Fold:
Amino acid sequence: MSPHSTIRIIQDEHGALSAVLRSISLLLSECRRRKIPPDFAILRAMLFYIDEFPEKVHHTKESRLLFPLLRERSVEAAEVLDRLDRDHAGSEQAVRVLEHELLGLEMMTEARDADARREHFEASVHRYVAAYLEHIDCEERIVLPLAERVLTPGDWAELDAAFMENRDPLTHREPDDDFRPLFKRILMTMPSPLGLGPAMEAMRTSYPRGA
Structure:
């Protein structure tokens, strides 16, 4: 385990986000297999979570805090960091498009083109999830190991203080958090075979089933 809080927080937030992304795809696939409508409420909750925290909190911390320090210390991953920053810049719009398509799908369930809308939405989600998981994998394989090698103790002190101050509520919450109902609902809808790891264990600790 890394001694740096920044690395642990990023990995925890990646774990939570990956679990939500995989759950969206799995839920859509299961509904397709069973020939039933998707659960619009839980899909809205999951997309809202992605829009609210990874996009506005997690990506901001990486692009404004971690990546600039890495560029100062090394040119090794300059192209990778540029691509990841471009991903960050475009991903908020991407999830907003999915939220709009989901709303259209829900509002137009009786429309003549309802089946086409659903197929389009599901294809869009699967592409989005695949791209996002590849983005996370790139950060885990390239960016975090580079940070471990090249950042200085002063860099880590600065980053750890900033990352500890502004954390994703899905992995670090107070018991009376305003978002408790949202995260509890997401947790209790997560398909169990995913192997959700430490982030999901943290959710179970804070929001035990039946609480």
Notes: The chain has eight helices and no strands. Residues 193-211 have pLDDT under 50 and may be disordered. The first helix runs from residue 5 to 34. Residues 62 and 68 are 9 Å apart (CA to CA).
